[in-house]
Design brief:
Blueprint lengths: L2 H4 L5 H16 L8 H5 L8 H19 L2 H12 L3 E2 H5 L6 H14 L2 E6 L2 E6 L1 H39 L1
Antiparallel strand pairs: 1-3, 2-3
């Protein structure tokens, strides 16, 4: 049972359909940001806007949860500098077994940050830019919300400090 069903927002079957639609939207061939459909109309694939927003936030949670681990961040950093690294090479240098490293790679793939590609007997990992772009778009939106408010707060604090100096 997934996160939406566990908290009682929807049933497990509906959640499976919703998450499949979210996953397709994030990782499919469409080059549209997930959030664009949230503000403009009812969610895609017949999903209500609230459900769509929840799906989008769950996908962002997966991205940030994947990046919360230092090993996975280091793997993403390696892929950022040299895309197309063999799984064994990507796993080297972390002081863990190959199966343990593969679990980290699986988590990165599940979150949409990394994609695997088989070429003969070798499996290569590639940084999936779309997952990173989704996280960056969300952070940019949050920045647009907070920066003006923090600027006003700083200006007000400076004004109060200047008035305090004048009185003393």
């Amino acid at each position: 049972m997934g996160a939406l069903a566990r908290v009682g927002l929807i049933g497990p079957i509906t959640e499976g359909v919703a998450m499949a639609a979210c996953w397709y939207r994030l990782h499919g061939s469409e080059a549209v940001r997930i959030g664009e459909s949230v503000a403009s109309r009812e969610g895609p694939y017949g999903l209500g806007t609230n459900l769509w927003v929840r799906c989008w936030l769950l996908m962002l949670n997966e991205i940030f949860l994947s990046l919360s681990d230092p090993t996975r961040r280091a793997m993403v950093e390696r892929l950022r500098h040299a895309d197309g690294i063999a799984v064994g090479d990507l796993a080297d240098g972390f002081g863990m077994s190959l199966p343990a490293a593969i679990k980290h790679i699986d988590r990165l793939c599940d979150s949409g940050l990394v994609r695997r590609e088989r070429s003969g007997r070798h499996v290569f990992c590639h940084l999936e830019r779309r997952g990173v772009e989704e996280a960056l778009a969300w952070l940019t939106d949050i920045e647009g919300f907070w920066v003006p408010r923090l600027d006003r707060l700083a200006a007000e604090a400076e004004r109060i400090e200047r008035e305090g100096r004048r009185r003393s």
